[in-house]
Specification:
Its EC number is 1.11.1.6. The protein is of the alpha+beta class and about 500 residues long. The chain has 15 helices and 10 strands. It is globular. Bound molecules: protoporphyrin IX containing FE.
Length: about 500
């Protein structure tokens, strides 16, 4: 049961129309006589019905189901030599944060415990503008070529004819695009259904850049590690909850904060110099790979705490508009093409979902004063008054980053960035290590079970066999156990090119 007290008593406000005119009572309707037809002149009644007709806005095309809360980000360690972001300029700096957690594939009413990656989107309001970290709870992703994103998402959603989720479509895509296997292994472990929204870690996944005041950059990966550890559900627990309480995650986040047990995360950064990146075994722009912690240690620098439930879910969470392109000086995107595509996609969808002036909505409005030449558009709340609408009055930028001019590295990057759909043995090393070295026996048993209960719903033998061949390329015994679980014969590993054929190695041999 929700812990929130329901107020049955009146709160003292006088009932009005949306224009503030007092009305005798909410059910009032003007009509001809006492039982005759209703009158068009009755603004109150039409105002009531017309607003109700327009209560819904488009749900997010992905990540539609979610939960959120407010809190703060605090700097705990000095990283000024890495980034000149004013947020990081002093240990102890604090900024207000709004966080939205989500599942990916389901609609706004779908189950919180579904097997899915979880979104972990953070908006930090700094004195240099909003910094959004639009992360997931997995350190890697399914694709490294952004052109595949809409195709991939379609296969995880509903079939255009049956309007059903479809196991054949799901595994057909994944087995034809085996660079997804690292994320598939994570998704089908119990980490695919975290215990609620706030018992999970968050990862940038992509490589970003921290730029310091000299204009020098480091490649970085950011991790938010849940204080007290992450928790997962087992597949039977997640299935039971999906039926009994599909909003389990929303409820548990709300009640945890209401009870004063504020969820918190320690924020770490892994860093890599451009020189290290050139020698790294994997492409640093490939978000199907992780950076080994022993080579690139985790360095703590911040804390995220959620200590405030929204007063109004729609205004403060549904209307929140996160984007990797909402950033501040000192933090930049890398050339990862998936990240580059995201920089465009989020503001684009916000303009559709919330309108041109989405950044003027209170939850999105920066605390830094906005001064530019954007004017008008639907729902202009902040007009910038009488200030001219062309460059005449605004002072030039005070912050002048020194341009980074490592041309050699930029040329290297151009070569490194071509290795998108070409799958080699390199792509199986990390998933194999995950299965053979990181997972416990229980994790391995659960992975096999979790894949079996899903893959057995596929009807096509070709899709099942191709999927088994991808798992066999990770580990033959894993594939054989899945095959036996779904009643198929063992299948040989997918044939892929050796690691030495990877374009990045060939280009620099
Ligand atoms: C080409 C790749 C991708 C594209 C085109 C894409 C696109 C989108 C779109 C259109 C939304 C809906 C946003 C809204 O309506 O407010 C969304 C939500 C989201 N995406 Fe992505 N996405 C991609 C990959 C990723 C990756 C790799 C991550 C994490 C590392 C990620 C994390 C999220 C999160 C956390 C949300 C939910 C934000 C919220 O709570 O409002 N996405 N994405």
């Amino acid at each position: 049961m929700p812990s929130k007290q329901v107020f049955a008593s009146q709160d003292g406000a006088v009932y009005t129309t949306s224009t503030g005119a007092p009305v005798a009572q909410p059910y009032a309707a003007e009509r001809v006589g006492s039982v005759g037809p209703l009158l068009l002149q009755d603004f109150h009644h039409i105002d009531l019905l017309a607003h109700f007709d327009r209560e819904r806005i488009p749900e997010r095309v992905v990540h539609a189901k979610g939960a959120g809360a407010h809190g703060y980000f605090e700097v705990t360690h000095d990283i000024t030599e890495l980034s000149c972001a004013s947020l990081f300029s002093k240990v102890g700096n604090k900024a207000r944060a709004t966080v939205r957690f989500s599942t990916v594939g389901g609609e706004a009413g779908s189950a919180d415990s579904a097997r899915d990656p979880r979104g972990f989107a953070i908006k930090i309001k700094t004195d240099e503008g909003n910094l959004d970290w639009v992360f997931n709870n997995t350190p890697v992703f399914f694709i490294r070529d952004p052109a595949k994103f809409p195709h991939f998402i379609h296969t995880q959603k509903r079939d255009p004819q049956t309007h059903l989720k479809d196991a054949d479509m799901f595994w057909d895509y994944l087995s034809q695009n085996p660079e997804s296997i690292h994320q598939v292994m994570t998704l089908f472990s119990d980490r695919g259904h975290p215990d609620g929204y706030h018992n999970m870690h968050g990862y940038s996944g992509h490589t970003y850049k921290f730029v310091n005041k000299e204009g020098k950059f480091h490649y970085v990966q950011i991790h938010l590690i849940k204080d007290g550890g992450a928790k997962s559900l087992t597949e039977p627990e997640a299935g039971k909850l999906a039926g009994e309480n599909p909003d389990y995650g929303i409820q548990s986040l709300f009640e945890t904060i209401e009870a004063g047990n504020f969820p918190s995360w320690t924020v770490y950064v892994q860093t890599m110099t451009p020189e290290q990146a050139e020698k790294f075994r994997y492409n640093i722009l490939d978000l199907t790979k992780v950076w080994p912690h022993k080579d690139y240690p985790m360095r703590p620098f911040g804390k995220l705490v959620l200590n405030e439930n929204p007063q109004n879910y729609f205004a403060e969470i549904e209307q929140a508009a996160f984007s990797p392109s909402h950033s501040v000086p000192g933090i930049e995107p890398s050339a990862d093409p998936v990240l580059q595509s995201r920089l465009f996609s989020y503001p684009d969808t916000h303009r559709h979902r919330l309108g041109t002036n989405y950044n003027q909505l209170p939850v999105n409005a920066p605390i830094a004063p906005v001064a530019n030449f954007q004017r008008g558009g639907a729902m202009t709340f902040v007009s910038q008054g009488a200030r001219p609408n062309y460059q005449s009055s605004l002072v030039p930028l005070k912050y002048k980053p020194k341009p980074y001019q490592d041309v050699k590295h930029e040329i290297w990057l151009g070569h490194a960035n071509v290795d998108l759909s070409f799958v080699t043995e390199l792509d199986f090393e990390q998933p194999r290590a995950l299965y053979q070295k990181v997972f416990s026996d229980t994790d391995r048993d659960h992975l096999v079970h979790n894949v079996v209960v899903h893959l057995k719903n596929a009807k096509s033998k070709e899709v099942k066999d191709r999927t088994l061949s991808v798992f066999a390329a990770v580990d033959q015994s894993l594939s054989d156990r899945i095959a036996s679980g779904i009643g198929s014969s063992p299948v040989a590993p997918l044939k892929v090119a050796p690691a030495s054929e990877a374009i990045r190695f060939k280009a620099f041999a």
